[in-house]
């Protein structure tokens, strides 16, 4: 194709504005939430310090969507109706197949030993059949998964991931650092990373979520709930439409919850740090069970988790003070 023919076939930008009359005279379709606040065809982030349990949370979310069951014993309970089992793609670039096998065994054991807590009505054979059909799990210990090379050019792995994600409801990649070769402190580079994932989401119709590390400063300051807790350029948080933060409970928060110091490590805090399509949500508390499996903790009064202080004068704000950032974009 000649340069002239390329120019002739190009559709000019800003040449097709929306038809306002049509928008106002027809009912809008409902928003399609894959997870509460995370729409199909959009990009989200799961942020948290290393070793906190991000991969286990992703695996449990993947299992829940793939089998049409509740995640983490009622996570997001009441925010969205039960959904039919759906195809999920999870790429864990730093985990071996053996490690993932151990984690799947731990999840299955927790689900079927504590059926009532996890809301499991499946029999085991049905569960395994649905999971085998819908969960497409990739271990990455010996593979290169960079979607963008050091020059921030698209790689063949990007097309491979797009092919693997066709028909998926949710695509999870973990961690983001293994899926590009750019400088994560470079705003232009990270903006390109988010744009690349956005095109993947739009092409496949799936929600795409990447796991990313939180900064050490936010971890030490007890600000793991903040949208700005993610490491590297703010272009990552700015570019996603949804951000979920997983953080450890601080000593102060454990004291407020009347937890002994040796029990503090068993509990984690989960916050919707940013959402453009969801009203503010309370912090949820998760408990680590055998094998690292995470289960939602409900307070005795039915509210979410332990009742933490809401004293806004504290230097390190409680996650319960969180207001969603996305609604003010």
UniProtKB/TrEMBL annotation:
GO terms for molecular function: helicase activity. SUPFAM superfamilies: P-loop containing nucleoside triphosphate hydrolases (SSF52540). Keywords: ATP-binding, Helicase, Hydrolase, Nucleotide-binding. Residues 305-329 are annotated as: Disordered. It holds the Pfam family AAA_25. This is Putative DNA helicase. The lineage of its organism: Bacteria, Pseudomonadati, Pseudomonadota, Betaproteobacteria, Burkholderiales.
């Amino acid at each position: 194709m000649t340069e002239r023919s390329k120019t002739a076939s190009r559709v000019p930008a800003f040449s097709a504005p929306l038809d306002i009359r049509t928008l106002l005279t027809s009912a809008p379709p409902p928003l399609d939430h894959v997870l509460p606040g995370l729409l199909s065809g959009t990009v989200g982030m799961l942020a948290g310090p290393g070793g906190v349990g991000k991969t286990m949370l992703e695996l449990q979310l993947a299992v829940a969507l793939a089998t049409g069951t509740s995640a983490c014993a009622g996570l997001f309970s009441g925010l969205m109706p039960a959904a039919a089992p759906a195809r999920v793609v999870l790429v864990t670039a730093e985990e071996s197949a053996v490690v993932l096998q151990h984690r799947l065994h731990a999840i299955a054991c927790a689900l079927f030993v504590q059926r009532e807590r996890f809301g499991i009505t499946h029999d085991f054979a049905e569960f395994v059949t649905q999971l085998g059909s819908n969960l497409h799990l990739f271990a990455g210990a010996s593979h290169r998964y960079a979607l963008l090379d050091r020059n921030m050019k698209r790689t063949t792995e990007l097309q491979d991931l797009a092919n693997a994600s066709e028909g998926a409801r949710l695509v999870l990649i973990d961690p983001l650092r293994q899926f590009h070769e750019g400088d994560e402190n470079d705003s232009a580079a990270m903006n390109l990373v988010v744009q690349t994932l956005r095109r993947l989401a739009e092409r496949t119709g799936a929600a795409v979520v990447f796991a990313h590390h939180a900064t050490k400063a936010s971890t030490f300051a007890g600000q793991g709930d903040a949208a700005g807790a993610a490491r590297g350029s703010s272009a990552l948080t700015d570019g996603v439409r949804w951000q979920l933060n997983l953080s450890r409970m601080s000593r102060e928060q454990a004291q407020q919850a009347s937890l002994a110091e040796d029990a503090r490590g068993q509990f984690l805090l989960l916050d919707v740090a940013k959402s453009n399509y969801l009203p503010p949500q309370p912090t949820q508390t998760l408990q680590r069970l055998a094998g690292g499996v995470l289960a939602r903790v409900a307070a005795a009064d039915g509210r979410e988790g332990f009742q933490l202080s809401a004293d806004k004068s504290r230097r390190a704000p409680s996650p319960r003070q969180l207001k969603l950032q996305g609604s003010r974009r």
